[in-house]
């Protein structure tokens, strides 16, 4: 029996830091701002958890111990499900998401973590979508993907799934942000779609593996959809649509918000029309989105799905003619800076700054380090 036990395969060791980040992710949502501020200040995740948990449960050590046990169990379940956890301190953590006021301390992923190293655009809309909305979502998803844009959505029924499928139709890349654990696909009939997405793109969730799709998780995940993206396109949203939550998050995060006009007789698109009245750019084709992002509309579609086909060559070539680069000038060699610092020095807001940083990173002039920070090479 002893020899059989000694020859049994063992799982990779889970690092204490990963368990600490997992524990932070299990704290109540109202702790997000405190956690984010503490991480940005350089405090270690274990110390943050100990301090916040002690304040929340001052006389309940068993409650704190239970959360830590759940955190370890989440890491073990992720290993078994072949999920990749990406913590705030990981250089793979997307800088755009790190820049929002309440980023998740940890995201659980399945697929290619490099999928978000490109220009990302979110497409969101009604679950009970009309045939018109489904057709528009699929066409926009395909057209954007054919230009190398990564399409972000929520894997929901209706507009979300149509946008994902459009991107896949074009051989492009798409990212699904879930309102459940990354190993719990909802709605269940989208399991094959999720598998297709993960082959070339990414499934993402801030929720611990195994978490069921409860109603209050979906509004929470909307800030991640917008936080990852440079722009959010709303298709067919009613007055109380969850898509309007995503649009509001986008505006608060400094992202561009665009909307597709619809039938004025049915009332099912009043939310999107309200956005248009408030100044959102009208979208009829993918060219409208690229124009709003300041990207070349004639990007070679044969390069879809790759970072080199995301429209950045044209921008990089044009910027190379300039004698000085404000973003490079804002960075100091060997001294990591976050997006707020770079934005302040360069005069660019984060939504415009991130694409330039991506160009510089791909050119080898800038490196990404933990916590969504960048350093000049």
Q: What labels would you give this structure?
A:
alpha/beta, 3 domains, globular, 11 strands, Arc Repressor Mutant, subunit A, Rossmann fold, 377 residues
Distance between the termini: 55 Å
Shape: globular
Helix/strand order, N-terminal first: HHHHHEHEEHEHEHEHEHEHEHHHHHEE
CATH topology of the largest domain: Rossmann fold
Helix vs. strand class: alpha/beta
Structural commentary:
There is one protein chain. By secondary structure, the chain is of the alpha/beta class. The chain folds into three domains: 72 residues, no CATH class; 180 residues, Rossmann fold, CATH 3.40.50.450; 55 residues, Arc Repressor Mutant, subunit A (Orthogonal Bundle), CATH 1.10.10.10. 45% of the residues lie in helices and 13% in strands. It is built from 17 helices and eleven strands. The strands form two sheets. Strands 1-2-6-5-4-3-7-8-9 form a nine-stranded mixed sheet, with helices on both faces. It has a two-stranded antiparallel sheet with strand order 10-11. Strand 7, helix 11 and strand 8 form a beta-alpha-beta unit. The chain is globular, with a radius of gyration of 21 Å. The N terminus is likely disordered.
């Amino acid at each position: 029996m002893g020899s059989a036990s000694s020859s049994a395969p063992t799982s990779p060791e889970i690092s204490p830091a990963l368990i600490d980040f997992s524990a932070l992710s299990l704290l109540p949502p109202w702790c997000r701002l405190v956690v984010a501020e503490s991480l940005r200040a350089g405090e270690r995740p274990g110390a943050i958890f100990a301090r916040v948990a002690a304040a929340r449960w001052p006389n309940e050590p068993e409650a704190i111990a239970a959360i830590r046990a759940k955190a370890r169990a989440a890491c073990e379940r992720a290993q078994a499900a072949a999920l990749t956890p990406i913590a705030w301190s990981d250089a793979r953590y997307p800088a755009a998401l790190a820049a929002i006021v309440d980023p998740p301390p940890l995201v659980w992923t399945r697929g290619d973590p490099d999928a978000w190293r490109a220009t990302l655009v979110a497409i969101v809309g009604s679950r009970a979508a009309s045939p018109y909305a489904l057709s528009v979502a699929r066409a926009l998803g395909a057209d954007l993907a054919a230009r190398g844009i990564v399409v972000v959505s929520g894997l929901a029924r209706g507009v979300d799934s149509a946008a994902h499928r459009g991107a896949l139709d074009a051989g492009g890349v798409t990212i699904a942000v879930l309102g459940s654990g990354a190993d719990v696909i909802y709605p269940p009939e989208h399991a094959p779609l999720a598998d297709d997405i993960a082959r070339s793109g990414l499934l993402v969730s801030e929720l611990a593996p195994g978490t069921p799709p409860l109603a209050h998780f979906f509004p929470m995940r909307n800030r991640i959809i917008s936080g990852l993206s440079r722009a959010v396109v709303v298709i067919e949203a009613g007055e109380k649509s969850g898509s309007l939550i995503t649009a509001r998050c986008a505006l608060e995060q400094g992202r561009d918000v665009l909307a597709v006009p619809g039938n004025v007789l049915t009332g099912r698109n009043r939310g999107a029309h309200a956005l248009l009245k408030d100044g959102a750019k009208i979208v009829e084709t993918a060219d409208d989105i690229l124009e709003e992002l300041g990207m070349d509309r004639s990007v070679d579609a044969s390069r879809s799905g790759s970072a080199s086909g995301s429209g950045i060559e044209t921008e990089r070539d044009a910027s190379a003619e300039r004698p000085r680069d404000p973003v490079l000038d804002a960075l100091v060699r060997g001294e990591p800076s976050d997006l707020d610092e770079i934005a302040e020095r360069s005069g660019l807001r984060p939504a415009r700054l991130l694409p330039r940083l991506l160009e510089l990173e791909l050119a080898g002039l800038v490196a990404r380090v933990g916590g969504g920070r960048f350093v000049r090479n």
